[in-house]
Please model this.
Amino acid sequence: MIQPPTDAERSRALGDLRYFVELSRERGELEVIEGADPYLEMGALYELSLRDTYPPLLLFRNIKGHAPDYEVLMNVRFSRVFVGDLDMQAVKDRRAAGKWEAKPVPPHVVETGPICENIIRGDDVRVTQFPAGTWHAGDGGPYIGTDCLVINKDPDSDWTNVGTYRVQVHGDRELTVFFEPGKHGRVIRDRYWAKGEPCPVVVVVGQAPALGDAAALSSRYGVSELESAGSLIGRAVDVVYGEVTGLPIPADAEMAFEGFILPPDVDSRIEGPFAEWTGYYATAPHKEAVMRVDRVYHRNAPMLCAQPPTKPTFPGRQTYIGWIAALWDAIEAAGVPGVTGVWKMLGGGARFINVIAIKQMHEGHAKMAGLVATGAGPGAFLGRITIVVDDDIDITSNAEVMWALATRWDPRTQTDIIDGCWSGNLDPVLSPAQRAADEMVNSRIIIYAVKPFAWKDRFPAVNTVDVTYSREVEAKWHDKLAFLRDRA
Ligand SMILES: Cc1cc2nc3c(=O)[nH]c(=O)nc-3n(C[C@H](O)[C@H](O)[C@H](O)COP(=O)(O)O)c2cc1C
Ligand SMILES: [Mn+2]
Model:
């Protein structure tokens, strides 16, 4: 198996998309694809690539119907260089390196940068000249923003937010941005609308991987993800100010659209449907306010990042190290002791199934962990199931977690069900009536699959060979037995 990149390589790559591509090429993890069709074919190839746990970086060139040097780059967020190893150690390393909200690095303003190599203004703007995939057959149109940054600024403070929200193409100067209720970009947009003003906004497509990472994580309200990204890469992110909005734009980004989200009564389009990460088309096509594009900035031969959702069961999609680290940080920050691991179970994507391992220290300890995880910022949105287990369970293994459920959980006495929790349009189980009433909440379950504290020392002993003895025996027999020798 190919080794993960060195720390130095990785940290440089996270701050520099073009180096990221070069490094992946050197490591044999880049697949260049010539002549694919952005209508369905690119999406199908992408989904095929997710059969691997570490999918290759896909670089599409000579995309059908587009100028040859407008390229699309996929799988940045799932690639080996980005995720490192998919194990608990990766989460621990990420936490140790992270704490990025605690030591933000403000961006550094520069006069110009590669993003200014081409600036297209006003009526010359033609968004449709750039390749945007129609990723799945049921989609309502092409989406140029999937692995993107949406930047807007609170009108009443200095807070500049950066989030990843999907962006659909409707015309040469018309996009829509889909924010779920409660997401920061939406809270900010609505403040402009409340004043009767359009919301200034920048959409970046193609950015340093650390920026994409920070944009997709649930940073705290009021925290700028530009500063979090600076902390992640250990230096300030260079930004230029947009000509019409004054918003910061990463100076080495590949492409940026700048303009305004008009109040919905001025111009709206039908957004969606769109194949979502839950594995469904749950959000009904609906009216979404138009973002009118006044400027396009792009580098020469831009590489547009894309990462459309797929069903969360593909092996190549199980890469949520940053999200897991953020949840663990939040649980500890709330004062829960003895947490030995946090994980997201296969099949639940980055949100649905939280697993927390604890070394039980007192009565009610498991409850603390479960309740906090269910309500914490990085766990609350669509965190439908939280499972608390003892520290002897390997929570990176679905089978081990299911074993804990099967053997340590009494459904009636070791379960909490909590109503009225944060959900969104994407949630497949929201009923038509709830959607009609804009009732975006539903229940959560917390499963305490732990040995009951009061008699945990009398709980039946676990059936297993002692680890140290097992290693001794393995060493003794290794060369004689094929099933030991040929083990990967
Ligand atoms: C590839 C990708 C696409 C996403 N698309 C959306 C989206 O369309 N709408 C949305 O509300 N959140 C979307 N998210 C999740 C948000 O990026 C995430 O909740 C983030 O925390 C939002 O930033 P905020 O906390 O500043 O609001 C997406 C995440 C990823 C990784
Ligand atoms: Mn935010």
Remarks:
- DSSP finds 15 helices and 22 strands in the chain.
- The first strand starts at residue 30 and ends at 34.
